[in-house]
Amino acid sequence: MRKTGCIIQARMTSTRLPGKVLRTIDHLNGVCVLDQVIERVKKSEYIDEIIIATTTNDDDDPIVQKAAEHGVGVFRGSESDVLSRYYHAAKEYGLDDVIRITSDCPFIDPHVLDDLIRVFREGGHQYASNCIRRTYPHGLDCEILKFDVLEWMFNNTEDSFYREHVTSYVTHHQDEFDIGSLEDDEDNSGIRITVDTVNDYLLSCVLADLLRNEEDPISYKTVTRIYKEHPYLSDINGDILQKKKYETEKEEFEAAAKMLRLQEMNRAAEVLEGKI
After folding, report:
1. Distance from the Cα of residue 31 to its chain's centroid
2. pLDDT band at 243, cuts 50/70/90?
């Protein structure tokens, strides 16, 4: 019987929004970002173990305490070498298959996690993700890989980028692995419900309030419906630049020019627009 575990990386020293994972988003019930992430992951049908992977820094002691409150596992390791943190956490807890999510995604949907696990298992893949071709909102990102792949990367990748961004070696060398992709039936990639900035945090508080009286507050489909009903939501954090892979040079130039216009760097934008 293979053991599937979800490792949630978390730390207090976020550059853009320090302490974000312990910020309250449901003020009526006193629920913080990490509370909601953990409780949602617990609703998965297929996850056998939940581990919070944090650092050895004293600043992260409150994260360890929060994990204890929820009765989930903890592993403390390197702050910068996140790959090492994942590898040792997975090894210590005896995982065969490792799900990776981040702690700044309070609206993670356990049904999406389970859909990804099914794609991974049924396809016999080494790795699977719902970000190979993004169709889900930002904030529902999840990926799963076999422990053997994690161990290989730990032992064979020395580049600091690959050590910091756990699965980036796989996604940058897709021809070397058997990869599965989970895609939605419609493109909602324009929705951003992760918490990385003050505006993201404000949106999460508003969204948590709107979800409170919904029949199914867990489903991301409820979130996408709410976005359509309340167009102002996308204005709250609409100026945040989201990571995206562009198919053509023209698309990339257009996106870069738009970003420059938002920063009122109009002359630079004009230079780029002249190349389109």
Report:
1. 19
2. very low
| Residue 75 · residue 53 · CB < 8 Å | yes
Question: Per-residue pLDDT averaged across 218-222, rounded?
Answer: 97
What whole-number distance in Å separates Cα of residue 242 and Cα of residue 268? 20
For 111, the token pair is: 């049904």
Nearest to 237 by CA among 187, 197, 189: 197
Q: Do residues 199 and 236 make contact, with C-beta atoms less than 8 angstroms apart?
A: yes
Instruction: List the domains of the chain with CATH numbers.
Output: 4-181 (3.90.550.10), 246-276 (no CATH)
Coil vs helix vs strand at 271 = helix
Nearest-angstrom CA–CA distance, 7 and 73? 9
Tokens of 75: 């592993």
Question: How does pLDDT run across 110-124, given as a tens digit for each residue?
Answer: 999 999 999 999 999
- Cβ neighbours of 204 (radius 10 Å): 27
Angle between helices 110-123 and 33-41 (to 10 degrees): 50
Which residue, among 48, 153, 40, has the nearest Cα to 95 in the 3D structure? 48
CA distance 261 to 142: 32
pLDDT at 126 over 70: yes
95: DSSP letter: -
Cβ-in-10-Å burial (0-12, 13-18, 19+) of 38 comes to: buried
Reported as type and span, the H/E element at residue 193 is: none
